[in-house]
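Project standup — Tuesday

K.O.: blocked on the structure for the chain from last sprint. Re-posting the sequence here as requested.
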Amino acid sequence: MKIVYCDGACSNNPGPGAWAYVVFKDGRPVSMATGVEDQTTNNRMELMAAISALEAEDDCTMIVDSKYVKDGITDWIKKWKINGWKSSTGAVKNVDLWQRLDNLVQSRNVIWEWQKGHAKNVHDYVDELARGAVLK
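H.V.: unblocked you, prediction finished:
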């Protein structure tokens, strides 16, 4: 199974943002991508990193440094869907992206893992890709 590391970044949240992912197979990078948006938030870029990776990959282990993404897709989303995409505080933020991610996950075998960011691991490289894309 492939391992995908993804991350998002935003300058002046909200502000210009970017996302990045790197796909590993047998311990070696096999593909990567980045994307940018002029006006966005960090949470949206974290979600876009996962969405973009899953649009390109099927079954994988998805490693994120965002508890918002990991907890949202593995736990919170169940209640959101039951409650008509409402949380305890009102409408779910970024619902358009949560619905896209949910649709992708339905047709794939995805294992979600959280890994601390900025901890001298592969995520540092993916974070650099995303932050570098914001600056361009």
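K.O.: great, moving the ticket to review. The chain has four helices and seven strands. Residues 67-82 form the longest helix (16 residues).
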